[in-house]
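Fold this sequence, please.
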Amino acid sequence: LSTLEVIAITSTDRRVIHHTTNHIEAPNWSPDGSCLHFKSAGRIFKIPATGGMPAPIPTGSQIRCNNDHGISPDGTQLVISDQSQPDNQSRIYVLPITGGTPRLVTEKAPSYWHGWSPDGQTLAYCAQREGDYDIYTIPVAGGVEQRLTRTPGLDDGPDYSPDGKFIYFNSERSSLMQIWRMRTDGSEQTQLTHDDYNNWFAHPSPDGRWLVFLSYEKDVKGHPENKDVTLRLMPVGGGPIRVLAKLFGGQGTINVPSWSPDSQRIAFVSYQLVYP
């Protein structure tokens, strides 16, 4: 069972938006606050933020979307990571927010989208090119990709600060997976969390005050599904980390940006295993 929920960062009150026997993942909140997008069975769906019936968004021949998708800052475009090509490798595409024929942005694969620059011009993503997975950027219009990280091990989950000056990401270069920050050209790579958790998918709030991220216990490798995980919140400049919610989830809970436009709430997915 999958439950699409919204949590208030001040009160930690949780509200169920959608509950289904289908497996759903990775909610995005539209910039105008009216709806949420999520992925299920290789397709992207849209649902009113107040709840209701999900509606599929047409994505042409790209019908094997993974959970790395998002919405442009102006709300007019959708970005997807899709594995429909014969090699089964993830590539990044852009299409109109209402659906349409996706336009390929990353020729090289695998590429997994995670961030859209506030000026709407650049995409940030995780990609494997020379053995390791690193952080890259590329113009939305297409072109030459730029590699930003070069350390051994996995760097993943890049998301832009609202002022466009920084990219937040997670890296295992210091042993456990931790949250890091760098300039958009890859300089000044700085570790922000130093604790005994594996921390993934940091997303800055639209007002630039907070980072929300997903924490696994330290013995968990990767970001698997069906684990006991914690949603945590910290000031962007560092400081005390606060637990927002403990839940059963992981992969698909908050892989991509899911803040409400007013920076007061976060959308996420929790799960429940049902045995026959």
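The longest strand covers residues 122-130. The two ends are 13 Å apart (CA to CA).
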